[in-house]
Automatic annotation (TrEMBL):
Pfam families: SusD-like_3, SusD_RagB. Residues 85-241 form the SusD-like N-terminal domain. The keyword Signal applies. The keyword Nucleotide-binding does not apply. It is found in: Cell outer membrane. CDD domains: SusD. Gene3D superfamilies: 1.25.40.390. GO terms for cellular component: cell outer membrane. It comes from Chitinophaga agri. It comes from the Bacteria. Belongs to the SusD family. InterPro entries: SusD-like_N (IPR033985), SusD_RagB_dom (IPR012944), TPR-like_helical_dom_sf (IPR011990). This is RagB/SusD family nutrient uptake outer membrane protein.
């Protein structure tokens, strides 16, 4: 599969830079020109699907699950004063220049194509090109429908991520400016204006619903690295949860289990550590993208977060590995060379539980919570939580543990009301420990656009986070 991915990735530029007419002309065809629906489906892996490089792999440095100040390490210099800690200091301390340079003062985004923003749009362009050409491909209607559904669904995921990186939370200010909606593959020379958060979400929902309508009648295919029906409904359930459309979120989560979604009993696994974000896990519906940590061998979980795991929780036993220096490293994630993310049925369960709490369906929500915990914690005894606020917090706490370091927490903090959090930092051993604070509803909950991207597209308006003064530690 990996060899095929690299081979067809080189065709992406050919597809995205060709017009539909030229692309399909007899005189232009060769062995590498996609002609059939199968060709397009394979080409989508290279032009539309993520490779093993995750554009927002530094996002976890900003949330409250990581700590550069490791008082529990045998050797504090493992992080304190290390090159990696200093290099990523701007993300960790929420500095306005984080999109343009690293903590050592090196410019990292002079070329806009290397930015998170541009990398997602490059994949969107690939999806657009496939969507523009698939109807003319050779193949059955069902084959073409599957390809079209995949392209719509992965494009929707990219826009969802862009909206949650560069736009305000939907439940906070849906009318605010977000990112441009680029729905064609052609190169545009004129400035592209920003759509609103509401408009981007409408596009995301529309694309996902079209994808589901096209793919649901088709046989469900699993373990082939292409998005499938349950994964589409998991993503729809997530989007509706962010929009606070509770009933729709529950309905989409239900479809996941109607289509055969499973929850793995992790308490029976005998491994002490290792990734379960792969197709060996029965609840995984789609494996995609790259590792969500910039360097999982350097940055350790915050001690206060680790303490939230039950001592018999299999996610702790399998997800973290104690190093020789006394640091609990994250071992749940695959190595960088592997695809590192997975969409799995446990998210549908937790999406449904949270939405049901908001709907006042506490019994249904509690059942889902207990059902999941029973599959995660050895010897777990069902809890009885009757208070709505307490149950909501319990579901959210479970979500935090279930998806730790998978690029969930930052987005969740945004929709939870953008709470105040702080990070401790020590530049070198012996120096003072300083605290950096992200205030409630801080402008940095919406990331700044890289300067090179704004210079490339004058239609973009810089977010307030990019116009702040440097953040000073106390």
């Amino acid at each position: 599969m990996k060899r095929k991915l690299f081979l067809i990735a080189g065709l992406a530029g050919l597809l995205t830079l060709s017009s539909c007419t030229k692309f399909l002309e007899e005189k232009s065809q060769s062995d590498v020109i996609p002609k059939t629906a199968t060709d397009f489906r394979e080409l989508l892996i290279g032009s539309g699907y993520m490779t093993n490089n995750e554009p927002m792999k530094y996002l976890y440095l900003m949330d409250d699950d990581v700590d550069f100040f490791l008082e529990y390490a045998n050797d504090p210099s493992y992080v304190v004063g290390s090159y990696d800690a200093k290099q990523n200091f701007l993300w960790y301390s929420w500095q306005p220049k984080l999109a343009d340079m690293d903590g050592m003062g090196v410019l990292i985004a002079e070329d806009p194509s290397v930015t998170t923003y541009a990398q997602y749009y490059a994949k969107i362009m690939g999806c657009n090109a496939v969507l523009e050409n698939i109807d003319k491909a050779i193949g059955t209607q069902s084959e073409k429908d599957r390809v079209k559904a995949e392209a719509l669904a992965v494009r929707a995921m990219y826009y969802f991520r862009l909206a949650n990186l560069y736009g305000e939370p939907y439940n906070y200010n849906a009318k605010s400016l977000c990112v441009p909606l680029k729905l064609t593959s052609g190169i545009v020379s004129s400035p592209m204006s920003q759509a609103t958060v509401e408009e981007v979400y409408a596009q995301v929902v529309g694309d996902l619903q079209k994808a589901a309508a096209l793919m649901d009648p088709l046989p469900i295919m699993r373990k082939d690295f292409h998005i499938n029906q349950p994964a589409i409904h998991i993503l729809l359930s997530r989007v509706f949860l962010y929009m606070e459309n509770w009933k729709e979120s529950v309905a989409e989560a239900n479809k996941v289990f109607e289509q055969g979604g499973k929850i793995t009993d992790m308490t029976t696994l005998d491994t002490k550590s290792g990734s379960w974000l792969n197709y060996n896990n029965a609840e995984v519906e789609w494996v995609f993208g790259g590792n969500t940590q910039a360097n999982q061998n350097t940055y350790a979980p915050a001690a206060r977060f680790l303490a939230t795991y039950d001592t018999e929780d299999a996610r702790y036993r399998i997800g973290f590995s104690l190093s020789s220096t006394g640091v609990n490293l994250v071992s749940k994630l695959p190595f960088v060379v592997d695809l590192g993310q997975a969409m799995r049925s446990s998210e549908a369960l937790l999406n449904r539980a949270e939405a049901n709490v908001q709907l006042g369906e506490l019994g249904a929500a509690l059942k889902d919570l207990n059902d999941l915990r029973r599959k995660r914690i050895q010897g777990y005894t069902d809890e009885n939580i009757a208070d709505k606020a307490t149950l909501l917090q319990a579901v959210r706490d479970e979500r935090r543990k279930e998806f730790a370091y998978e690029c969930f927490r930052w987005f969740d903090l945004r929709r939870y009301g953008m709470p105040e959090i702080s990070h401790r930092y020590q530049h070198d051993l012996g120096e003072n420990v300083v605290h950096y604070k992200l205030t409630k509803a801080d402008p940095m909950y919406v990331l700044p656009f890289p300067t090179s991207v704004i210079l490339k597209n004058s239609g973009l308006k810089q977010n307030p986070s990019g116009q702040m003064p440097d953040r000073i530690g106390q």
